[in-house]
Amino acid sequence: MTDFSSQTTPPPASSGWMGHPRPLARLFSTEAMERFGYYGMRALLTLYLAQHFLFSDTTTTGLYGGFTAMVYLTPLIGGLMADRFLGAKRSVKFGAIVMALGYAVLCLSSLGAPARPYAMIEGQRYDVTLATGNRASGGAMAEAKGQYVTDHGQALRIRGNDDKSVSLLRADGSVARRIAPGGFSAGGERSALYTFLLIAGLALVTLGNGHFKPNISTIVGGLYAQGDRRRDAGFTIFYMGINLGSFFSQVLCPLLAVGMGSWSGLGWWAGFALAAAGMVVSWLLFQFDGGMLDGHGERPQHANGGRDWLIYIGTFLAIPLVYLLFTGLADYVKPPESSGLIGYLASLPILGKLMFGTFLVAVPGILVWSWRNGSLREFRMMLAAMVLITFNTVFWTLFEQAGSSLTLFADRNTDMSVFGLFSISAGQTQFFNALFIILLAPLFSLLWNGLSRSGREPTIPVKFGVALVGVGAGFLFLVWGTRYASADFKVGLWWLAGLYLIHSMAELCISPVGLSMITKLSIARIVGLMMGVWFLSISVAQYVAGVVAQFASVETVGGEVTNPRLSLETYVGVFTHIGWAAVVIGAVLLALAKPLKRLMHGVM
């Protein structure tokens, strides 16, 4: 097991890189390129599922939430394997290779033809035609933009109604047929091979990330001795590298995949290929470090190197298991609301049960271990860490709407015009978060350092509480902006950008501070495992985020909504509820800040 208090002796503040240990520069660039790959893929994923494979909103957000949940669950195992056998450095290298393979498989999954849309109307199947507004119907009448079914030789446009019924409209706008709620459903006819490649690619990314993600953060923590006050600033710089990589990928991957403005792009494959290239660069930077990382993240002294291949082979053997967990999400059907909370929990797919079960076992289990094997002071510090980890789950549940419900909101109910000069794509809106982090991270680093020197730096619980209030305020800001929606039920792009600005400031109060908090409050010999628990809390949050996003599901046909007004109202209702919930929970944590400070024994 790794003891970070003795692993390395940091240089004085005046030497190294930006006043920090020189290896931080290599870790910064490695993580930046790894995040280039991951966030570039993530910027595409929700839209890829909804528009290429034509999954429903419920399936799309469920798959997205389950995938991102697994991305943060596997670090619990990856951190443990590094602590006991591989060491952080070997884990990072292997994880990078597996993730690159995953992005390559996703690229292959996009080479097949898109799913063919269809609609089930009162038990009968109809093929769906998507019109862009410039095609002829019957040789005489130009189709309006929308989705059409052909009934008795007549092209009828599909329109969703406010009461969730569906109307089929003739060319003159009159109603040819009205389908009662529940009588209409849409879907897509997909290739089994390319669907298999999609799920297999996501499984590879998930498993590779489990080896990579916790261990590069652990190496960063190991650069600083216990009590080194540069640690928070170092993690903030490291976090800026994450967002530097994600900023460029969230612009470039959607640009190549779906284009921008009048350019239609090269196709989904190009976006995923660029993500794979970024991951390869990350591996190269770490593999050929010129000796800069010698002595950092090495194999534990007691470990047997002969077991490495068992871990490598076991990782690939786990692919079918992860595959089955993801397919369970795709087949999941929510129970009726009358089933209650117990019925809902019982109906969860295997992955949902795994998420909640692992968290409910891990948190008290580690606390029991700490009580038995650590001092009273260490136990109290671990207790404080677990309380903060629980509140961290709430934050990420709401923040991670960015990749699901907020991306779909951008696609359906946001005017994507930039000052009337050009338009961006829905996937590219995620770059706002990365841009604001890049701009604000140095300021926050200076802020924490300045307040620390004057003895006025807020405690970790206060920072967490502010973050929760902030993430709620971001949603309420966007809800305010929906009052000024246009006649076609679209909100100006800058209201969405404002949400990301507020969320980015909240993120800087919790994420880099949280990583640093784990390395400061954890018992040294299980810090890798505790880093995994930190990511486990985010894993549970990602899964619940998918569930929350499902409440914002709207009816789509061929990947497009049939009623923009109902879509906007649905998003406003969900965002209002989660916004106020976050503000209240943040206020509760701020009230608990002083008791938690006592448990932390001076850790800031």
Task: Describe, in plain words, how this protein is organized in 3D.
- The chain has 604 residues and is of the alpha+beta class.
- It has 2 domains: 23-114 and 190-344 and 353-554 and 561-599, Growth Hormone, Chain: A, CATH 1.20.1250; 116-188, no CATH class.
- Helices cover 63% and strands 10% of the residues.
- The chain is built from 19 helices and 15 strands.
- It has helices at residues 23-52, 57-86, 88-109, 192-222, 231-258, 268-287, 308-317, 319-331, 340-347, 350-373, 376-399, 405-413, 431-453, 460-481, 493-508, 511-521, 527-550, 564-591, 593-599, and strands at 116-121, 124-131, 136-137, 141-142, 146-151, 154-160, 166-169, 175-179, 184-189, 414-415, 417-418, 422-423, 491-492, 556-557, 560-561.
- The strands form 5 sheets. It has a 7-stranded antiparallel sheet with strand order 8-7-6-5-2-1-9, with no helix packed on it. It has a two-stranded antiparallel ribbon with strand order 3-4.
- Helix 2 runs antiparallel to helix 3.
- The chain is globular, with a radius of gyration of 25 Å.
- The two termini are 25 Å apart.
